[in-house]
Amino acid sequence: QVQLVESGGGLVQPGDSLRLSCVASGRPFSNYAVGWFRQAPGKERDFVAVISMSGSNTYYADDVKGRFTIFRDNAKDAVYLQMNSLKPEDTAVYYCAAGGRVATGNPNFWGQGTQVIVSS
């Protein structure tokens, strides 16, 4: 089992930045590809970004490409999501996920989520 804990969410204004963190425990995080997903109120959970085990490969949803960056520090068992130029439509609960078919939304493990609100 892998336990995932997200942090870093909050209330920000449009154009601001936030960095989300996902810290793992239970097994070496370097064994897993890791993804970020988000769920806005009343909507389904959507893919945001994914990073390979080594961190050498990343992939983003079109609506965050160029604004968000996913990266990892395997020595700290952590994956991060740097979010810049935030927009109101980025408001959602953000989830970290790992293992399984994470890139297609079918991971083995999910975190509990962290709320991001972008509002003026």
Largest sheet: 7 strands, mixed
Could you tell me the strand content as a percent range?
over 45%
- Quote the distance from N terminus to C terminus: 40 Å
Structural class: mainly beta
The radius of gyration over CA amounts to 13 Å
Number of distinct beta strands: 11
Number of helices: 0
Percentage of residues in helical conformation? under 10%
Report low-confidence residues grouped into runs of 5 or more: none
Shape: globular
Order of SSEs: EEEEEEEEEEE
Mean pLDDT: 95
Describe the overall structure.
- This protein is mostly beta strands and 120 residues long.
- It has no helices and 11 strands.
- The protein has strands spanning 3-7, 10-12, 18-25, 34-39, 45-51, 58-60, 68-73, 78-83, 92-98, 109-110, 114-118.
- The strands form 2 sheets. Strands 2, 4, 5, 6, 9, 10 and 11 form a 7-stranded mixed β-sheet that branches.
- It starts with a strand and ends with a strand.
- The mean pLDDT is 95.
Topology at a glance:
Blueprint: E1 3-7, E2 10-12, E3 18-25, E4 34-39, E5 45-51, E6 58-60, E7 68-73, E8 78-83, E9 92-98, E10 109-110, E11 114-118
Parallel strand pairs: 2-11
Antiparallel strand pairs: 1-3, 3-8, 4-5, 4-9, 5-6, 7-8, 9-10, 9-11
